[in-house]
Amino acid sequence: MVLIELTFPAGRYHATAWGRHVNEGVPEWPPSPYRLARALYDAWKRKRPEWEEVRVNPLLNAVSSAPPLYRLPDATVSHTRSFLSKNEEDPQSKTLIFDGFVVLSPRSTVLMGWPEAALDVGVLDDLDELLSILNYLGRSESWIAARLVPGVTAVEWNCFPETHSDDVSQMEIVPVAVPIPQGEYTPIKVGTGRSARQLSWMDALATGTDVIQEAGWSHPPAMRYTDYLRPAECFEPSAATHTTRSTTEMNSVLYAFDSKVLPQVTETIVIAERVRRGLMSAHKELVGAQNVSFKFSGKGPEGEPIQGHQHAFYLPLDRDGDGRIDHVIVYCQLPFHGLEVVALDRLRSLWQRDGRPELRCIPVLWNERASQSRVFASTTPFVPSRHFKPKRNDFETWIRGEVVRECANHGLPAPVKVDGIGELSVTGGRSVRWFEFRRNRKDDPVRSGYGLRIEFDREIKSPLALGYGCHFGLGQFRAT
Questions:
Q1: Do 51 and 44 contact (CB within 8 A), yes or no?
Q2: 245: pLDDT strictly greater than 50
Q3: Which residues, listed in sequence order, are joined to residue 450 by a DSSP beta bridge?
Q4: Would the pTM of this model clear 0.85, i.e. be above it?
Protein backbone atom coordinates (compact mmCIF):
# COMPACT_ATOMS: atom_id res chain seq x y z
CA MET A 1 0.00 0.00 0.00
CA VAL A 2 1.15 3.53 -0.78
CA LEU A 3 0.17 5.75 2.17
CA ILE A 4 0.72 9.52 2.25
CA GLU A 5 0.39 11.68 5.35
CA LEU A 6 -0.54 15.36 5.04
CA THR A 7 -0.14 17.75 7.96
CA PHE A 8 -1.09 21.44 7.89
CA PRO A 9 1.22 23.32 10.29
CA ALA A 10 -0.86 26.52 10.17
CA GLY A 11 -4.01 24.59 11.05
CA ARG A 12 -5.71 25.60 7.78
CA TYR A 13 -6.30 24.09 4.37
CA HIS A 14 -7.11 26.75 1.76
CA ALA A 15 -8.39 25.35 -1.53
CA THR A 16 -11.59 25.98 -3.48
CA ALA A 17 -13.33 22.80 -4.55
CA TRP A 18 -12.91 22.13 -8.27
CA GLY A 19 -15.96 23.28 -10.23
CA ARG A 20 -16.97 25.82 -7.56
CA HIS A 21 -16.54 29.60 -7.60
CA VAL A 22 -14.35 31.05 -4.87
CA ASN A 23 -17.19 33.27 -3.65
CA GLU A 24 -19.34 30.24 -2.91
CA GLY A 25 -17.04 29.77 0.08
CA VAL A 26 -16.95 25.96 -0.36
CA PRO A 27 -13.50 24.61 0.55
CA GLU A 28 -12.20 21.37 -0.92
CA TRP A 29 -12.35 18.49 1.55
CA PRO A 30 -10.78 15.98 1.31
CA PRO A 31 -7.70 17.35 -0.46
CA SER A 32 -8.15 16.11 -4.00
CA PRO A 33 -5.68 13.64 -5.54
CA TYR A 34 -5.70 15.73 -8.72
CA ARG A 35 -4.41 18.73 -6.76
CA LEU A 36 -1.75 16.56 -5.12
CA ALA A 37 -0.61 15.15 -8.48
CA ARG A 38 -0.23 18.68 -9.88
CA ALA A 39 1.68 19.78 -6.77
CA LEU A 40 4.10 16.87 -7.22
CA TYR A 41 4.53 17.78 -10.89
CA ASP A 42 5.28 21.38 -9.89
CA ALA A 43 7.79 20.31 -7.23
CA TRP A 44 9.55 18.18 -9.83
CA LYS A 45 9.80 20.95 -12.42
CA ARG A 46 10.86 23.71 -10.02
CA LYS A 47 13.05 21.85 -7.52
CA ARG A 48 14.24 18.67 -9.23
CA PRO A 49 14.46 19.74 -12.90
CA GLU A 50 17.42 17.42 -13.48
CA TRP A 51 15.18 14.38 -13.07
CA GLU A 52 14.15 12.79 -16.35
CA GLU A 53 10.45 12.31 -17.12
CA VAL A 54 10.86 8.52 -17.08
CA ARG A 55 11.92 8.82 -13.45
CA VAL A 56 8.89 10.85 -12.37
CA ASN A 57 6.26 9.08 -14.48
CA PRO A 58 5.93 5.96 -12.23
CA LEU A 59 5.23 7.93 -9.06
CA LEU A 60 2.72 10.25 -10.75
CA ASN A 61 1.12 7.20 -12.31
CA ALA A 62 0.82 5.59 -8.86
CA VAL A 63 -1.08 8.50 -7.29
CA SER A 64 -3.28 8.63 -10.41
CA SER A 65 -3.89 4.90 -10.76
CA ALA A 66 -7.09 4.84 -8.70
CA PRO A 67 -9.11 7.12 -6.41
CA PRO A 68 -7.43 6.96 -2.98
CA LEU A 69 -9.02 6.23 0.38
CA TYR A 70 -8.86 8.80 3.17
CA ARG A 71 -8.73 9.01 6.91
CA LEU A 72 -9.89 12.55 7.73
CA PRO A 73 -9.36 14.13 11.16
CA ASP A 74 -11.81 16.31 13.07
CA ALA A 75 -12.17 19.66 11.31
CA THR A 76 -14.45 22.64 10.85
CA VAL A 77 -14.83 25.38 8.25
CA SER A 78 -14.43 29.14 8.28
CA HIS A 79 -13.87 31.99 5.83
CA THR A 80 -12.51 35.49 5.45
CA ARG A 81 -14.03 38.37 3.49
CA SER A 82 -11.77 40.78 1.63
CA PHE A 83 -12.65 43.85 -0.41
CA LEU A 84 -10.11 43.86 -3.24
CA SER A 85 -9.46 46.61 -5.76
CA LYS A 86 -10.93 46.19 -9.22
CA ASN A 87 -7.93 48.04 -10.74
CA GLU A 88 -10.18 50.84 -11.96
CA GLU A 89 -9.74 54.63 -11.82
CA ASP A 90 -12.03 54.93 -8.84
CA PRO A 91 -9.99 53.81 -5.82
CA GLN A 92 -13.24 53.08 -4.00
CA SER A 93 -14.20 50.50 -6.61
CA LYS A 94 -13.75 47.19 -4.85
CA THR A 95 -15.11 43.68 -5.07
CA LEU A 96 -15.93 41.32 -2.22
CA ILE A 97 -13.97 38.07 -2.24
CA PHE A 98 -14.65 35.12 0.05
CA ASP A 99 -11.88 32.75 1.12
CA GLY A 100 -13.33 29.54 2.53
CA PHE A 101 -10.96 27.17 4.27
CA VAL A 102 -10.88 24.08 6.48
CA VAL A 103 -9.67 24.50 10.06
CA LEU A 104 -7.99 21.59 11.84
CA SER A 105 -5.42 20.99 14.52
CA PRO A 106 -1.82 21.57 13.36
CA ARG A 107 -1.07 18.13 14.85
CA SER A 108 -3.88 16.40 12.95
CA THR A 109 -3.04 14.32 9.91
CA VAL A 110 -4.86 13.45 6.72
CA LEU A 111 -4.03 9.98 5.41
CA MET A 112 -4.37 9.19 1.70
CA GLY A 113 -3.95 5.55 0.74
CA TRP A 114 -3.76 3.43 -2.39
CA PRO A 115 -4.10 -0.12 -0.99
CA GLU A 116 -3.48 -1.84 -4.32
CA ALA A 117 -0.47 0.23 -5.37
CA ALA A 118 3.00 -1.28 -5.16
CA LEU A 119 6.16 0.64 -6.05
CA ASP A 120 9.85 -0.17 -6.20
CA VAL A 121 12.00 1.18 -3.39
CA GLY A 122 13.62 3.75 -5.68
CA VAL A 123 10.27 5.11 -6.84
CA LEU A 124 9.04 5.30 -3.23
CA ASP A 125 12.16 7.25 -2.28
CA ASP A 126 11.57 9.69 -5.16
CA LEU A 127 7.92 10.13 -4.17
CA ASP A 128 8.90 10.76 -0.56
CA GLU A 129 11.48 13.33 -1.65
CA LEU A 130 9.00 15.26 -3.78
CA LEU A 131 6.48 15.18 -0.93
CA SER A 132 9.11 16.49 1.49
CA ILE A 133 9.79 19.58 -0.65
CA LEU A 134 6.16 20.64 -1.03
CA ASN A 135 5.61 24.00 0.65
CA TYR A 136 1.86 24.32 0.26
CA LEU A 137 -1.18 22.59 -1.21
CA GLY A 138 -3.97 24.72 -2.63
CA ARG A 139 -3.37 28.41 -2.00
CA SER A 140 0.01 29.64 -0.83
CA GLU A 141 -1.12 30.24 2.78
CA SER A 142 -2.07 26.56 2.99
CA TRP A 143 1.28 25.34 4.34
CA ILE A 144 1.84 21.61 4.26
CA ALA A 145 4.18 18.92 5.51
CA ALA A 146 3.82 15.73 3.48
CA ARG A 147 5.55 12.37 3.60
CA LEU A 148 5.20 8.67 2.88
CA VAL A 149 4.22 6.41 5.78
CA PRO A 150 5.88 3.00 5.29
CA GLY A 151 4.95 -0.34 6.78
CA VAL A 152 1.25 0.33 7.44
CA THR A 153 -1.08 -2.46 6.34
CA ALA A 154 -4.42 -1.41 7.83
CA VAL A 155 -6.14 1.96 8.29
CA GLU A 156 -9.66 2.76 9.44
CA TRP A 157 -10.79 4.81 6.42
CA ASN A 158 -13.66 7.27 6.85
CA CYS A 159 -13.82 8.83 3.38
CA PHE A 160 -13.83 6.79 0.19
CA PRO A 161 -15.37 6.49 -3.31
CA GLU A 162 -19.10 5.79 -3.33
CA THR A 163 -18.47 2.41 -4.97
CA HIS A 164 -16.27 1.37 -2.02
CA SER A 165 -19.20 0.86 0.37
CA ASP A 166 -22.94 0.24 0.26
CA ASP A 167 -23.45 1.76 3.70
CA VAL A 168 -24.33 5.42 3.16
CA SER A 169 -25.86 5.99 6.60
CA GLN A 170 -24.43 9.09 8.27
CA MET A 171 -22.46 9.82 5.10
CA GLU A 172 -22.76 12.52 2.46
CA ILE A 173 -21.75 12.51 -1.19
CA VAL A 174 -19.16 15.01 -2.37
CA PRO A 175 -17.52 15.18 -5.83
CA VAL A 176 -13.72 14.97 -5.69
CA ALA A 177 -11.33 15.81 -8.52
CA VAL A 178 -9.18 12.81 -9.42
CA PRO A 179 -6.59 12.45 -12.19
CA ILE A 180 -7.42 10.22 -15.13
CA PRO A 181 -5.07 7.19 -15.06
CA GLN A 182 -2.43 7.30 -17.75
CA GLY A 183 -3.75 4.13 -19.38
CA GLU A 184 -7.24 5.62 -19.72
CA TYR A 185 -6.20 9.03 -21.00
CA THR A 186 -7.08 9.93 -24.61
CA PRO A 187 -4.70 12.55 -26.09
CA ILE A 188 -6.43 15.84 -26.74
CA LYS A 189 -5.57 18.50 -29.31
CA VAL A 190 -4.73 22.02 -28.20
CA GLY A 191 -4.04 25.09 -30.33
CA THR A 192 -4.74 25.72 -34.01
CA GLY A 193 -2.78 25.70 -37.22
CA ARG A 194 0.93 25.11 -36.98
CA SER A 195 0.88 25.57 -33.22
CA ALA A 196 -1.61 22.73 -32.75
CA ARG A 197 -0.32 19.76 -30.80
CA GLN A 198 -1.46 16.69 -28.94
CA LEU A 199 -1.24 16.93 -25.17
CA SER A 200 0.50 13.97 -23.59
CA TRP A 201 -0.82 12.69 -20.27
CA MET A 202 1.96 14.44 -18.34
CA ASP A 203 1.32 17.73 -20.17
CA ALA A 204 -2.42 17.43 -19.65
CA LEU A 205 -1.87 16.86 -15.94
CA ALA A 206 -0.06 20.21 -15.73
CA THR A 207 -2.39 22.19 -18.01
CA GLY A 208 -2.97 25.71 -16.65
CA THR A 209 -6.22 27.64 -16.30
CA ASP A 210 -5.31 29.95 -19.19
CA VAL A 211 -5.18 27.03 -21.63
CA ILE A 212 -8.41 25.55 -20.28
CA GLN A 213 -10.30 28.85 -20.64
CA GLU A 214 -8.89 29.56 -24.11
CA ALA A 215 -9.89 26.10 -25.29
CA GLY A 216 -13.35 26.42 -23.74
CA TRP A 217 -13.07 23.19 -21.76
CA SER A 218 -15.36 22.68 -18.78
CA HIS A 219 -12.60 21.05 -16.75
CA PRO A 220 -8.91 20.08 -17.14
CA PRO A 221 -8.28 17.36 -19.76
CA ALA A 222 -6.62 14.90 -17.36
CA MET A 223 -9.20 15.29 -14.57
CA ARG A 224 -12.59 13.83 -13.79
CA TYR A 225 -14.93 13.83 -10.82
CA THR A 226 -15.49 10.84 -8.56
CA ASP A 227 -18.29 10.79 -6.01
CA TYR A 228 -16.92 10.23 -2.51
CA LEU A 229 -18.64 9.40 0.75
CA ARG A 230 -17.50 11.44 3.72
CA PRO A 231 -19.01 11.69 7.24
CA ALA A 232 -22.12 13.86 7.12
CA GLU A 233 -20.97 15.72 10.23
CA CYS A 234 -17.30 15.94 9.29
CA PHE A 235 -17.29 19.68 10.07
CA GLU A 236 -19.07 19.22 13.41
CA PRO A 237 -16.48 17.20 15.38
CA SER A 238 -18.20 17.44 18.75
CA ALA A 239 -21.48 16.03 17.52
CA ALA A 240 -19.81 13.40 15.35
CA THR A 241 -17.49 12.30 18.14
CA HIS A 242 -20.34 12.07 20.64
CA THR A 243 -22.38 9.91 18.30
CA THR A 244 -19.50 7.57 17.63
CA ARG A 245 -18.58 7.09 21.27
CA SER A 246 -22.15 6.50 22.37
CA THR A 247 -22.73 3.73 19.85
CA THR A 248 -19.33 2.04 19.73
CA GLU A 249 -17.21 0.81 22.59
CA MET A 250 -13.55 1.68 22.09
CA ASN A 251 -11.36 -1.17 23.35
CA SER A 252 -8.20 -0.86 21.28
CA VAL A 253 -6.05 1.44 19.17
CA LEU A 254 -3.38 0.32 16.72
CA TYR A 255 -0.55 2.82 16.16
CA ALA A 256 1.99 2.65 13.36
CA PHE A 257 5.53 3.76 14.23
CA ASP A 258 7.55 5.91 11.88
CA SER A 259 11.20 6.75 12.35
CA LYS A 260 14.48 6.54 10.48
CA VAL A 261 15.56 4.08 13.19
CA LEU A 262 12.87 1.72 14.49
CA PRO A 263 13.54 -0.05 17.82
CA GLN A 264 14.52 -3.69 17.84
CA VAL A 265 12.06 -6.31 19.09
CA THR A 266 14.37 -6.97 22.03
CA GLU A 267 13.30 -3.55 23.38
CA THR A 268 9.63 -4.53 23.53
CA ILE A 269 9.15 -3.91 27.26
CA VAL A 270 11.02 -0.58 27.03
CA ILE A 271 8.78 0.72 24.24
CA ALA A 272 5.65 -0.48 26.02
CA GLU A 273 6.67 1.46 29.14
CA ARG A 274 7.12 4.62 27.08
CA VAL A 275 3.70 4.22 25.46
CA ARG A 276 2.16 3.89 28.92
CA ARG A 277 3.96 6.99 30.20
CA GLY A 278 2.95 8.94 27.08
CA LEU A 279 -0.73 8.08 27.51
CA MET A 280 -0.67 8.79 31.25
CA SER A 281 0.91 12.19 30.54
CA ALA A 282 -1.69 13.00 27.86
CA HIS A 283 -4.54 12.02 30.20
CA LYS A 284 -2.96 13.95 33.09
CA GLU A 285 -3.06 17.15 31.01
CA LEU A 286 -6.79 16.63 30.55
CA VAL A 287 -7.92 15.54 34.03
CA GLY A 288 -5.11 16.38 36.47
CA ALA A 289 -2.51 14.19 38.15
CA GLN A 290 -4.91 12.79 40.75
CA ASN A 291 -7.44 11.57 38.21
CA VAL A 292 -5.37 9.65 35.67
CA SER A 293 -7.37 6.61 34.58
CA PHE A 294 -6.48 3.26 36.15
CA LYS A 295 -6.85 1.81 32.65
CA PHE A 296 -3.62 3.60 31.72
CA SER A 297 -1.77 3.43 35.04
CA GLY A 298 -2.80 -0.05 36.19
CA LYS A 299 -3.13 1.29 39.73
CA GLY A 300 -6.03 2.07 42.03
CA PRO A 301 -6.69 5.30 44.01
CA GLU A 302 -4.20 4.31 46.73
CA GLY A 303 -1.53 3.13 44.30
CA GLU A 304 -2.45 -0.53 44.65
CA PRO A 305 -2.07 -2.72 41.52
CA ILE A 306 -5.30 -3.42 39.61
CA GLN A 307 -6.23 -7.10 39.71
CA GLY A 308 -7.96 -9.18 37.05
CA HIS A 309 -6.20 -7.71 34.00
CA GLN A 310 -8.80 -4.94 33.71
CA HIS A 311 -6.23 -2.28 32.75
CA ALA A 312 -4.57 -1.67 29.40
CA PHE A 313 -2.15 -3.97 27.59
CA TYR A 314 0.64 -2.17 25.69
CA LEU A 315 1.77 -4.62 23.03
CA PRO A 316 4.55 -3.55 20.61
CA LEU A 317 4.43 -5.49 17.33
CA ASP A 318 6.78 -6.46 14.52
CA ARG A 319 4.21 -6.90 11.78
CA ASP A 320 6.60 -7.31 8.86
CA GLY A 321 8.87 -9.76 10.71
CA ASP A 322 12.13 -7.85 10.19
CA GLY A 323 13.11 -7.82 13.85
CA ARG A 324 12.12 -4.20 14.48
CA ILE A 325 8.99 -2.84 16.18
CA ASP A 326 6.75 -1.07 13.67
CA HIS A 327 3.38 -0.96 15.48
CA VAL A 328 1.92 -1.01 18.96
CA ILE A 329 -1.60 -1.95 20.01
CA VAL A 330 -3.13 -0.54 23.18
CA TYR A 331 -5.88 -2.91 24.28
CA CYS A 332 -8.18 -2.98 27.31
CA GLN A 333 -10.97 -5.37 28.27
CA LEU A 334 -12.92 -2.41 29.65
CA PRO A 335 -13.79 0.15 26.95
CA PHE A 336 -12.11 3.55 26.89
CA HIS A 337 -14.45 6.51 27.32
CA GLY A 338 -14.50 10.29 26.99
CA LEU A 339 -11.17 11.92 27.74
CA GLU A 340 -9.45 8.53 27.74
CA VAL A 341 -10.17 8.36 23.99
CA VAL A 342 -8.91 11.94 23.59
CA ALA A 343 -5.67 10.97 25.33
CA LEU A 344 -5.28 7.99 23.02
CA ASP A 345 -5.70 10.30 20.03
CA ARG A 346 -3.11 12.74 21.42
CA LEU A 347 -0.25 10.23 21.56
CA ARG A 348 2.07 11.60 18.88
CA SER A 349 5.66 10.53 19.56
CA LEU A 350 7.99 8.56 21.82
CA TRP A 351 11.51 9.42 22.87
CA GLN A 352 14.38 7.06 21.99
CA ARG A 353 17.67 6.85 23.82
CA ASP A 354 21.25 7.20 22.52
CA GLY A 355 20.39 10.07 20.20
CA ARG A 356 18.10 8.01 18.00
CA PRO A 357 15.25 9.94 16.31
CA GLU A 358 11.88 9.92 18.03
CA LEU A 359 9.15 7.47 17.10
CA ARG A 360 6.14 9.10 15.52
CA CYS A 361 2.89 7.40 16.58
CA ILE A 362 0.15 7.32 13.95
CA PRO A 363 -3.22 5.92 15.06
CA VAL A 364 -4.27 3.85 12.06
CA LEU A 365 -7.01 1.58 13.39
CA TRP A 366 -9.49 1.89 16.22
CA ASN A 367 -11.10 -1.30 17.48
CA GLU A 368 -9.07 -3.73 15.39
CA ARG A 369 -11.10 -6.86 14.73
CA ALA A 370 -9.73 -9.72 16.83
CA SER A 371 -8.53 -12.81 14.98
CA GLN A 372 -9.04 -16.30 16.40
CA SER A 373 -6.94 -19.43 16.36
CA ARG A 374 -6.32 -22.70 18.20
CA VAL A 375 -2.53 -22.51 17.85
CA PHE A 376 -0.26 -19.66 18.97
CA ALA A 377 3.51 -19.13 18.82
CA SER A 378 5.71 -16.79 20.86
CA THR A 379 6.79 -13.45 19.41
CA THR A 380 8.31 -12.30 22.72
CA PRO A 381 9.57 -14.52 25.55
CA PHE A 382 7.10 -16.00 28.02
CA VAL A 383 8.43 -15.11 31.47
CA PRO A 384 6.98 -17.23 34.30
CA SER A 385 6.32 -15.49 37.59
CA ARG A 386 7.78 -18.44 39.52
CA HIS A 387 11.20 -20.07 39.28
CA PHE A 388 11.85 -23.59 38.05
CA LYS A 389 12.80 -25.98 40.84
CA PRO A 390 14.31 -29.13 39.29
CA LYS A 391 13.97 -31.21 42.47
CA ARG A 392 10.18 -31.05 42.31
CA ASN A 393 9.46 -31.95 38.66
CA ASP A 394 10.92 -31.95 35.16
CA PHE A 395 11.09 -28.76 33.12
CA GLU A 396 8.42 -29.73 30.56
CA THR A 397 5.87 -30.46 33.28
CA TRP A 398 6.75 -27.25 35.12
CA ILE A 399 6.56 -24.92 32.09
CA ARG A 400 3.25 -26.44 31.02
CA GLY A 401 1.92 -25.93 34.53
CA GLU A 402 2.97 -22.26 34.44
CA VAL A 403 1.19 -21.73 31.12
CA VAL A 404 -1.95 -23.45 32.42
CA ARG A 405 -1.89 -21.27 35.54
CA GLU A 406 -1.48 -18.09 33.50
CA CYS A 407 -4.29 -19.08 31.15
CA ALA A 408 -6.56 -19.59 34.16
CA ASN A 409 -5.62 -16.10 35.43
CA HIS A 410 -6.79 -14.67 32.11
CA GLY A 411 -10.00 -16.69 32.02
CA LEU A 412 -8.74 -18.96 29.25
CA PRO A 413 -8.99 -22.75 28.98
CA ALA A 414 -5.95 -24.91 29.66
CA PRO A 415 -3.92 -25.61 26.51
CA VAL A 416 -3.86 -29.18 25.29
CA LYS A 417 -0.24 -28.97 24.13
CA VAL A 418 2.80 -26.85 24.99
CA ASP A 419 6.04 -27.14 22.97
CA GLY A 420 9.26 -25.16 23.05
CA ILE A 421 10.59 -22.81 20.35
CA GLY A 422 14.34 -22.29 20.34
CA GLU A 423 14.47 -18.75 18.93
CA LEU A 424 12.50 -16.09 17.09
CA SER A 425 12.99 -16.19 13.31
CA VAL A 426 13.05 -12.86 11.45
CA THR A 427 13.41 -11.99 7.78
CA GLY A 428 16.68 -12.46 5.99
CA GLY A 429 17.38 -15.83 7.59
CA ARG A 430 18.25 -14.21 10.92
CA SER A 431 17.05 -15.15 14.38
CA VAL A 432 16.76 -13.55 17.81
CA ARG A 433 17.40 -15.59 20.93
CA TRP A 434 14.97 -15.19 23.79
CA PHE A 435 17.63 -14.19 26.32
CA GLU A 436 18.45 -11.15 24.15
CA PHE A 437 15.11 -9.56 25.08
CA ARG A 438 14.87 -7.10 27.96
CA ARG A 439 12.87 -9.15 30.49
CA ASN A 440 12.40 -6.93 33.54
CA ARG A 441 10.70 -3.68 34.48
CA LYS A 442 12.57 -0.98 36.40
CA ASP A 443 14.16 -2.55 39.51
CA ASP A 444 12.62 -6.01 39.15
CA PRO A 445 15.07 -8.92 38.91
CA VAL A 446 15.84 -10.33 35.48
CA ARG A 447 13.92 -13.55 34.90
CA SER A 448 14.34 -16.34 32.38
CA GLY A 449 12.14 -16.26 29.29
CA TYR A 450 11.08 -19.00 26.92
CA GLY A 451 9.64 -19.34 23.44
CA LEU A 452 6.58 -21.57 23.25
CA ARG A 453 4.02 -22.97 20.87
CA ILE A 454 0.70 -23.57 22.59
CA GLU A 455 -2.40 -25.30 21.28
CA PHE A 456 -5.96 -25.12 22.62
CA ASP A 457 -8.93 -27.38 22.02
CA ARG A 458 -10.97 -24.45 20.74
CA GLU A 459 -10.33 -21.09 19.09
CA ILE A 460 -9.02 -18.27 21.28
CA LYS A 461 -9.15 -14.55 20.47
CA SER A 462 -6.00 -12.53 20.02
CA PRO A 463 -4.15 -10.48 21.14
CA LEU A 464 -2.79 -13.03 23.60
CA ALA A 465 -0.15 -12.18 26.21
CA LEU A 466 0.67 -14.27 29.30
CA GLY A 467 3.08 -14.26 32.22
CA TYR A 468 5.22 -11.63 33.89
CA GLY A 469 5.19 -8.31 32.00
CA CYS A 470 2.29 -9.38 29.77
CA HIS A 471 0.78 -5.86 29.97
CA PHE A 472 4.08 -4.55 28.58
CA GLY A 473 4.59 -6.84 25.61
CA LEU A 474 6.29 -9.85 27.16
CA GLY A 475 4.69 -13.26 26.70
CA GLN A 476 3.05 -12.28 23.40
CA PHE A 477 1.74 -15.01 21.12
CA ARG A 478 0.61 -14.66 17.53
CA ALA A 479 -2.01 -16.84 15.87
CA THR A 480 -0.53 -19.40 13.49
A1: yes
A2: no
A3: 382
A4: no
